[in-house]
Amino acid sequence: MSDGAAQQASGPASAVRRVEYPTLVAWSEEVLAYDFGPHHPMSPARLDLTARLCEDLGLFGLPVVRVVEPPVATDDELATVHTREYIAAVRRVSENPAEPEPGRGLGTEDDPAFAGMHEASARIVGGSLAAADAVLDGSAVHAVNFAGGMHHAAADRGSGFCIYNDVAAAVQRLLDGGVQRVAYIDTDAHHGDGTERIFWDEPRVLTISLHESGLTLFPGSGFPNEVGGPHAEGTAVNVALPAGTRDAGWLRAFHAVVPQLVEAFRPEVIVSQHGCDSHHLDPLTNLKVTVDAQREAALSVSALARRFCEGRWIATGGGGYEVVQVVPRAWAHLVGIAAGHPVHLRTPTPQRWRDYVHERYGRNAPALMGEDADTWWRSWEIGFNPNDPVDRAVMATRKEIFPLHGLDPWFD
């Protein structure tokens, strides 16, 4: 069968029904205090522009959407995934940035110390905890914290622009609230190492990370043979993609691994991290993905939550350093999808938003919500091509992981 004959006409996202769920969005301008300084890649402008785009598109005003101010997580809440010693170190640096603790990853080039670091970082965690609480108590079925996704922070140190790990805290909150199985899906260009390590030996959590190979990108980990601890083999899943992977390969890899494992694992809630630094314009990575493909992946995660979790889904942001052309559109699409009102790719960006971008940041904003990209991808069912580096990466993961879930790496 030819590739064309096996084409998924509009990708799996074309089959997604428009379904509205009560949706919580954790957002407040207070979150903009998470600021490593004017020359750091993780500019708070990306959050400012995302929130303003959501507002101007009418997403925050939808009847199903409730925007809540993220609280500052308490030390006890942080201690569910971080050591007390590390929390104390963050507090010290927060109060006295002139005395960094590089052994804890604080005051480094990646994570410069700044006054108020503890509160700003803990507020991001508070947003993801509020999302988990809303899903647990049923006041929301979907929840979004686009300021979150700090997946590099480890239990005892900061790393990769991440001080506290909000997604890990949200997953732990779900477990503590009685959820038996959580699937964590991470599509950031960087390996979700901190979250994976926190749940390395936890059989109730499936972590799936689709990222650029650690051979070419920080943090240098996330290879297929990293499969989880002795009590949880197969619950850490890593798809290490070659530099230069484009939409077709990225989406093919996603659909050759993620749906099959989610179906086998049968989670009760999905938590996802949607770092958009896989984009071809991102200054820090080497993948070549478009906003259109990132939107399709979010639609697919939503569909998995509806199929296996009665809709229960918590979505966060993550990396993404092209703060005008990419981040606001990618995460506004995420909010729209979560609310059951996906924004069409041909939708013009609001004039008020474009004017603000130009006046505030001196840059020209994109005119449309999409890039007119061809997101055609080749279904795995038509076969494995050993000459394709993306296929080799996918097969390496399937060989390591699928048998541990009773799946055939060649056919399932």
From TrEMBL:
Per UniProt, residues of the Histone deacetylase domain are: 40-335
Q: Does the keyword Iron apply?
A: no
Pfam families the UniProt entry points to: Hist_deacetyl (PF00850)
Where would you find the membrane-spanning parts of this chain?
none
Source organism superkingdom: Bacteria
The answer to keyword Chloroplast applying to this record is no
A Gene Ontology BP annotation from the UniProt entry: acetoin catabolic process
Pathway(s) of this molecule? Ketone degradation; acetoin degradation
Q: Which PANTHER family match?
A: HISTONE DEACETYLASE HDAC1 (PTHR10625:SF10), HISTONE DEACETYLASE HDAC1-RELATED (PTHR10625)
Q: What is this protein called?
A: Acetoin utilization protein AcuC
